[in-house]
Design a protein that fits this description.
The protein has a single domain, classed as UDP-N-acetylmuramoyl-L-alanine:D-glutamate ligase. 33% of the residues lie in helices and 27% in strands. The chain is built from 9 helices and 13 strands. The strands form 2 sheets. The chain has a 9-stranded mixed β-sheet, sandwiched between helices. A 4-stranded mixed β-sheet has the order 3-2-6-7. Helix 6 packs across helix 7. The two termini are 26 Å apart.
């Protein structure tokens, strides 16, 4: 089984402040760090750390930032298939407050030029993972949907992360559901599930979302996570962690979950490893595993 991750690679500029609030329009003292980012690339890195032999497929610019991101992924145990664009490599500014919550300001850059033709021929044993950020950009949406169609035609497992409640709301729930309908695994957090289903009862939300995905995985922060499949729910408690930076926690969770996927899956193991990797991710700065 090979896990292919199709999506964005970014340079993350992370500003960490000890203040509770960011003084927009003025100054907030911070410590600034630079990390590899991009939701799908982050998940690939965690899979690499778990020795799951991931393959990341994305696009970067013809610039030093792109070269840096490729080198980081390959050093993390990720095989890369990278297209090159005349647009500069994408980047995101992430502001992290004292509580660990983050606000993100992304610039898509070369990510909008991703091509489904980069995707190798998949087999029924493979997984194609997509973070919905690639669906939320008009330039990459058609190619991302094409990649999903190719994976389905090959009989591969398709996994989609909902990615952003704000962007689901921006583009519309009906439109979003039309993009993800028929996927095998759908990852969401509480905010995303509530925006889509308009209910705060996550079990009711999962039942509604089961019309669109075979396995519905909902993460609820310190309240843990669960998966719904064929009317049956399995739950997992959140593991203890000191919250430093929540950036990429969902990406890490998806990596842990998919690293233990099999046919048929051991859902208990998938949930446990997802929770373990997410706890590690929020206990450090940055969305990737620690650099060796």
């Amino acid at each position: 089984m090979t896990i292919y991750l199709f999506g964005e690679m970014m340079l993350d500029v992370v500003a960490i402040t000890d203040e509770d609030r960011v003084a927009f329009g003025s100054d907030t003292l911070s410590r600034n760090e630079f990390h590899g980012g991009g939701s799908a690339a982050n998940t690939a890195s965690w899979l690499g750390a778990l020795h799951a032999s991931p393959v990341f497929i994305g696009t970067c610019g013809r610039d030093p930032e792109g070269e840096r991101l490729i080198s980081e992924l390959e050093a993390a145990g990720v095989h890369t298939i990278i297209g090159r664009s005349d647009i500069e490599t994408g980047s995101v500014v992430s502001i992290v407050s004292r509580s660990g919550e983050r606000s993100m300001f992304p610039y898509k850059g070369a990510n909008i030029d991703i091509k489904a033709d980069l995707l190798p021929t998949l087999s029924p044993h493979d997984i194609l993972y997509i973070a919905s950020y690639s669906l939320f950009a008009q330039g990459s949406r058609a190619e991302t949907l094409k990649a999903l169609s190719l994976a389905r035609s090959a009989g591969a497992t398709t996994a989609i992360d909902a990615a952003s409640s704000a962007l689901i709301d921006k583009y519309g729930v009906a439109e979003f559901l039309s993009w993800i309908t028929g996927c095998d695994i759908l990852f969401l957090n509480r905010d995303e599930a509530e925006v889509i289903t308009e209910t705060s009862d996550l079990y009711v939300a999962a039942a509604q979302l089961a019309e669109y995905a075979r396995y519905v995985v909902i993460k609820d922060g310190a309240q843990g996570s669960f998966v719904l499949h064929e009317g049956q729910i399995q739950r997992q408690e959140a593991l203890p962690a000191t919250v430093i930076d929540t950036t990429g926690a969902g990406d890490a969770y998806a990596g842990g979950f998919l690293a233990h996927w099999a046919t048929p899956p051991d859902l208990g193991a998938c949930l446990r490893v997802g929770a373990k990797v997410a706890a590690q991710a929020i206990s450090q700065v940055g969305a990737r595993p620690p650099r060796s």
